[in-house]
Design a protein that fits this description.
heterodimer, A: mainly beta, Immunoglobulin-like, 11 strands, B: mainly beta, seven-stranded mixed β-sheet, four-stranded antiparallel β-sheet, about 0% helix
Chain lengths: ~110, ~110
């Protein structure tokens, strides 16, 4: 039973346009959500997070939206840049519970 | 280097052999995590430590897997009687404190069991 799902294995966008990556979760106990970015042969690096008490968090070109009723979150990147090409992982956790549960990732390709 | 360091970066072994993977976390990080990532999948939780003790080992797949962190810093993941299905990238991460927050990952140790 996969508790965090990223249903799109890949996404391709043109440079300068918006990239939207989606994530769904099933465990209503999750109250903290994170996005990580991963380049080949490197470990994942933290990108942005959101607490369940918020519905939006913005950091520069990156915005994460949370819809608790739908158990859905999305990461918006605007404008997209070729350097954003990477695998993006959605992760969910319970505050003070240690582990994060990851989705299987979405490979984003931004074409010049 | 101030990041999480993992050794070896690559390990090739034969089925049935014993393997140790080492993780050196960021100095001052009290929480340390081990994850396993197979091709095309996301990181899968194995175990995490708060200090020297294993706070949650619910992700260890069976008793062939064991991890220690004797002094609350460096951790070793030990795999006995390796099987071909153990082939994966083993990721270590650390954080300032437990709480489900941001993790700082190492580059991983790629294990191949022939």
């Amino acid at each position: 039973d996969q508790q965090v799902k990223q249903n799109s294995p890949s996404l391709s966008v043109q440079e300068g346009r918006i990239s939207i990556l989606n994530c769904d979760y099933t465990n209503s106990m999750f109250d903290y959500f994170l996005w990580y970015k991963k380049y080949p042969a490197e470990g994942p690096t933290f990108l942005i997070s959101i607490s369940s008490i918020k519905d939006k968090n913005e950091d520069g070109r990156f915005t994460v939206f949370l819809n608790k009723s739908a158990k859905h979150l999305s990461l918006h990147i605007v404008p997209s840049q070729p350097g954003d090409s990477a695998v993006y992982f959605c992760a969910a956790s319970r505050r003070n519970a240690g582990k994060s549960t990851f989705g299987d990732g979405t490979t984003l390709t931004v074409k010049p | 280097g101030a990041g999480v360091s993992q050794t070896p970066s690559n390990k090739v072994t034969e089925k049935g052999k014993y393997v140790e993977l080492r993780c050196d976390p960021i100095s001052g990080h009290t929480a340390l995590y081990w994850y396993r990532q197979s091709l095309g999948q996301g990181p899968e939780f194995l175990i995490y430590f708060q200090g020297t003790g294993a706070a949650d080992d619910s992700g260890l797949p069976n008793d062939r897997f064991f991890a220690v962190r004797p002094e609350g810093s460096v951790s070793t993941l030990k795999i006995q009687r390796t099987e071909r299905g153990d082939s994966a990238v083993y990721l270590c991460a650390s954080s300032l404190a437990t709480g489900g927050g941001e993790l700082f990952f190492g580059e991983g140790s790629r294990l191949t069991v022939l």
